[in-house]
Amino acid sequence: MIPQLVTVGWRRRDGRWFRLYIPVLPVVLVLSPLLLLAVLGGLIACVIFKVSMVGALSGVGRLVWALPGTRFEIAEGRMGVLVSVR
């Protein structure tokens, strides 16, 4: 399943969390021209470095499909960042 929502949160100075919910589909649609350029650049890089294009696209696809359910948190002192992919 493709990720649908990314939650990014960070701890404010007063100790409370601020969360930002980012829907993936609208962001991908808005950034699709840049995504197309990135894919073309990646395919050109595959040709230059003699890497299998099918293998590279397969690896990226597996990475995207594995993202749902990913959650990581970084905390250092009073500062904290939380990223959750659903």
How would you describe what is shown here?
There is one protein chain. Helices cover 44% and strands 31% of the residues. The chain is α+β, with helices and mostly antiparallel strands and 86 residues long. Strands 2-1-4-3 form a 4-stranded antiparallel beta sheet. The longest helix is centred in the middle third of the chain and has 17 residues, at 32-48. It starts with a strand and ends with a strand. Keywords: Membrane, Transmembrane, Transmembrane helix. The chain crosses the membrane at residues 20-49.
In short:
Keywords: Membrane, Transmembrane, Transmembrane helix. A four-stranded antiparallel β-sheet has the order 2-1-4-3.
Overview features:
86 residues, alpha+beta, 3 helices, 4 strands, transmembrane helix, membrane, transmembrane
Produce the secondary structure layout.
Blueprint: E1 5-11, E2 17-23, H1 24-30, H2 32-48, H3 53-66, E3 71-76, E4 79-85
Antiparallel strand pairs: 1-2, 1-4, 3-4
